[in-house]
Write a structure and sequence with these properties.
There is one protein chain. By secondary structure, the chain is α/β, with parallel strands linked by helices. The chain has a single domain, classed as Rossmann fold (3-Layer(aba) Sandwich). The chain is 42% helix and 12% strand. It is built from eight helices and seven strands, in the order βαβαβαβαβαβαααβ. The protein has a seven-stranded parallel β-sheet, sandwiched between helices. Helix 1 links the parallel strand 1 and strand 2. Helix 4 runs parallel beside helix 5. The longest helix is centred in the middle third of the chain and has 30 residues. It is globular. The chain starts with 16 loop residues before the first strand and ends in a 32-residue tail after the last strand. The structure holds (2E)-Hexenoyl-CoA and NADPH dihydro-nicotinamide-adenine-dinucleotide phosphate. The site of (2E)-Hexenoyl-CoA (TC6) has 14 residues, from helix 4. It catalyses: (2E)-decenoyl-CoA + NADPH + H(+) = decanoyl-CoA + NADP(+); (2E)-hexenoyl-CoA + NADPH + H(+) = hexanoyl-CoA + NADP(+); a (2E)-enoyl-CoA + NADPH + H(+) = a 2,3-saturated acyl-CoA + NADP(+); (2E)-dodecenoyl-CoA + NADPH + H(+) = dodecanoyl-CoA + NADP(+). Interacts with PEX5, probably required to target it into peroxisomes. Pathway: Lipid metabolism. Its EC number is 1.3.1.38.
Length: 300
């Protein structure tokens, strides 16, 4: 167990109820832990409920230990609790998760749409079903959760939403499905920030670069190892992000300190959006016929 503790005030989210989708692993787990360590009641949910239950037990123990190590008051602690098993692709399951949260914890002030993912596949080999699976998970799933939270609670009480996307400024070779879905989430966020302004709902995105999570990289198998070998040296920061570096941006957006921020995307990527990343190799031949005159030394 690490002795990590949040930089934010320990009671920042006291009396707040938060929902973090995919909160049982990786980035979502780090976000859930930080929110609960700052006083929130955090509901986590995903398809694998057992995984969420285990994560909740571990996080609650870690927070208690952290409080005693750092001399913090135990009564300031929030806690992580587990909602029903939910696939965000399934609208009914999402409606049920939101209903359960409001029934049991009486409000839903903060929502983090973190659940999502993809697999590595070149566009020409990708089936329509595979494309749709990723778009439905990331884009449609995020829409389902936002809309259910709004209809059932935030329309009448206000709220604050953060959607996790992915650094895809230069496209996403071998992940066309995810690149398209995340760009969709960012545009949907801008639209919702305007439609839901009158209800006092703020909504923003955090766009991570590459974050080291065991769960995330296991998902890719050997393709994940290759990715690490190839991409790591080309990152400007020469390292990946930690999950906590994503979480602190989320906490800032969920706090009053960002009260004039809505419809925005906060990149947490160590500057990699402005740097070429060799996501695919392109052969050293002339691919684009020249129009006009180009000297020999201007070509490979
Ligand atoms: C720059 C990178 C930084 C980012 C890092 C992260 O995000 S880390 C976070 C990483 N964490 C995560 O990504 C976690 C969450 N990710 C997931 O759960 C999955 O990746 C998911 C989103 C596809 C959903 O999966 P699911 O099981 O619910 O989907 P399903 O069973 O409904 O399948 C639908 C169809 O998709 C196709 N297809 C599927 N796999 C492959 C493949 N490898 N190859 C080719 N095709 C594949 C296949 O056609 C399949 O149909 P079939 O042929 O079986 O009839
Ligand atoms: N790691 C990275 O480098 C980056 C990650 N991201 C994104 O951040 C988020 C978290 O990723 P990370 O923590 O690394 O990886 P994880 O694989 O640990 O997280 C993905 C989470 O989403 C949940 N999930 C997936 N599909 C569904 C679904 N249909 N319904 C409900 N929950 C679902 C999973 O739980 P379960 O399987 O139980 O359903 C899991 O907890 C993802 O959206 C990811 O794409 C973005 C940029 C970079």
């Amino acid at each position: 167990m690490s002795s990590w503790q949040s930089v934010f005030h320990p009671t920042l989210f006291t009396n707040k109820v938060a929902l973090v989708t995919g909160g049982g692993s990786g980035i979502g787990r780090a976000i859930s832990k930080e929110l609960a360590s700052l006083g929130a009641t955090v509901v986590i949910a995903s398809r694998d409920r057992e995984k969420c239950l285990q994560a909740a037990r571990e996080i609650n123990d870690e927070i208690t230990l952290c409080c005693s190590r750092h001399g913090r008051k135990l009564e300031d602690r929030g806690r992580v609790v587990v909602g029903p098993s939910t696939s965000i692709r399934d609208e009914e399951e999402v409606q049920n998760l939101i209903h359960h949260t409001i029934e049991k914890y009486k409000s839903l002030n903060l929502l983090v749409n973190n659940a999502g993912g993809q697999f590595v596949c070149a566009a020409e080999e990708l089936s329509s079903k595979g494309f749709q699976a990723v778009v439905q998970t990331n884009l449609t799933g995020t829409f389902h959760v936002c809309r259910a939270a709004y209809e059932q609670y935030m329309r009448d009480h206000g709220g604050n939403i953060v959607n996790i996307t992915l650094g895809n400024r230069n496209g996403m070779p071998n992940m066309i499905h995810s690149g398209a879905a995340r760009a969709g989430i960012e545009n949907m966020t801008i639209t919702l920030s305007q439609e839901w302004m009158e209800s006092g709902v703020r909504i923003n995105c955090v766009r991570p670069g590459i974050v080291w999570t065991d769960s995330g990289f296991e998902n890719y198998g050997p393709a994940g190892d290759l990715f690490v070998e190839k991409i790591l040296p080309s990152l400007p920061a020469k390292r990946f992000a930690s999950p906590e570096e994503i979480s602190s941006a989320v906490c800032w957006l969920l706090s009053e300190g960002s009260s004039y921020v809505t419809g925005s995307v906060v990149s947490v990527d160590g500057g990699s959006a402005f740097h070429f990343l060799p996501l695919i190799d392109i052969e050293d031949t002339n691919h684009l016929p020249v129009y006009g005159v180009l000297p020999r030394k201007a070509k490979l």
